[in-house]
Amino acid sequence: MSFRTVVISNQSKLNYKNRFLVVKQDNDEKYIHLSEIDTIIVDSIAVSISSYLLKELSDNKINIIFCDEKHNPFGELSSYYSSHNSSKKIQKQINWSKENKDLMWQNIIKNKIINQALMLHKIKSDKYELLLSYIEDVLASDKTNREGHAAKVYFNELFGKDFVRNDSDNINAALNYGYAILLSTVNKEVTSNGYLTQIGIHHKNEFNEFNLSCDLMEPFRIIIDNFVYFNQDRELNTQYKLDIINIFNNRYNYENKNYVLKDIIKMYVKNTLESIDNPKNYKEFSVYEG
Q1: CA-CA distance, 195 to 182, in Å (whole number)?
Q2: pTM of the model
Q3: Residue 41 and residue 6 in contact, taking contact as beta carbons nearer than 8 Å
Q4: Do residues 115 and 218 lie in contact, with contact meaning Cβ atoms separated by under 8 Å?
Q5: N or C: which end of the chain has fewer CB within 10 A?
Q6: How far is it, in rounded angstroms, from Cα 287 to Cα 223?
Q7: Are 113 and 150 in contact (CB under 8 A)?
């Protein structure tokens, strides 16, 4: 099973040779077997990559994320055909009923608010019970926007009442970086299961290529929030980014067993996509660090 995240942060040439990723920097060459690699993050614009390597990475369902000159993720490689019956699944996806999508979104938002409440309980916030009270008020499709109300309370408790999401500060920069890695991880699993990232359950922005992944990542945002909360005084430098990336190798409880987060995301995405026609089969992910 693949488990490594490879970060390329210096001028390099990336090639393929006999099932190995070859990283050449000056006179030094490193070889990493493709079976070990889950994700490659190209964190430099001074990296050249052979087209043959890109083809092999795609064939092996290895996620590759590209960063810009400011070292922020801006794109990724995604294979067209990741499942033998993609056409069948995409047709099914197009025909998902509005009723089932609304019920599934209700499940996802309840799951998200539960995790936000657990985070507030962890930091001993007295708003923990207020968030819990929102859960039973979440209706199909979240018509009353409990998600928005919970988010306002939640972020104010974490980072203060003056905190504004998406301001230009270290906290938002770290959150955005973590969310981008999370989104890419979910994208990989959506395409591996044969579905389109563009057609969502709730998100439906015509300019968003990742509507479905944005839906599915919601219960996992808390894990990024948790890490940033306890590191909010740090500058978003290379080491901090590596620490965020390493979050995905932490272990959590899912379905009464202990798994690496990457594997939980894989199981969660598969279960949720298979449960949309029967939302009662949805299996939530509650934050519990093993």
Answers
A1: 18
A2: 0.92
A3: yes
A4: no
A5: N
A6: 8
A7: yes
Residue 61, token pair as written in the block: 């369902």
The residues pairing with 67 across neighbouring beta strands, listed in sequence order, are 73
List, for residues 30-61, the tens digit of each pLDDT value: 999 999 999 999 999 999 999 999 999 999 98
Q: What distance in Å separates the CA atoms of residue 202 and residue 105, rounded to the nearest whole number?
A: 6
3-state secondary structure the chain: CCCEEEEECCCEEEEEECCEEEEEECCEEEEEEHHHEEEEEECCCCEEECHHHHHHHHHCCCEEEEECCCCCEEEEECCCCCCCCHHHHHHHHHCCCHHHHHHHHHHHHHHHHHHHHHHHHHCCCCCHHHHHHHHCCCCHHHCCCHHHHHHHHHHHHHHCCCCCCCCCCHHHHHHHHHHHHHHHHHHHHHHHCCCCCCCCCCCCCCCCCCHHHHHHCHHHHHHHHHHHHCCCCCCCCHHHHHHHHHHHHCEEEECCEEEEHHHHHHHHHHHHHHHCCCHHHCCCCCCCEC
User: Rounded to the nearest 10 degrees, how much is the dihedral formed by the CA atoms of 216, 188, 169, 207?
Assistant: -70
Q: Which two tokens stand for residue 184?
A: 């890419």
How many other β-carbons are positioned within 10 Å of the β-carbon of residue 218?
19
Sequence-separated contacts (24+) of 145-154 with Cβ below 8 Å: 146/109, 146/113, 147/109, 147/112, 147/113, 150/112, 150/113, 150/116, 151/116, 153/127, 154/116, 154/119, 154/120, 154/127
The set of long-range contacts for 20-24, using a CB threshold of 8 Å and a minimum separation of 24, is 21/53
pLDDT digits (tens, 9 = 90+) for 2-40: 679 999 999 999 999 999 999 999 889 999 999 999 999
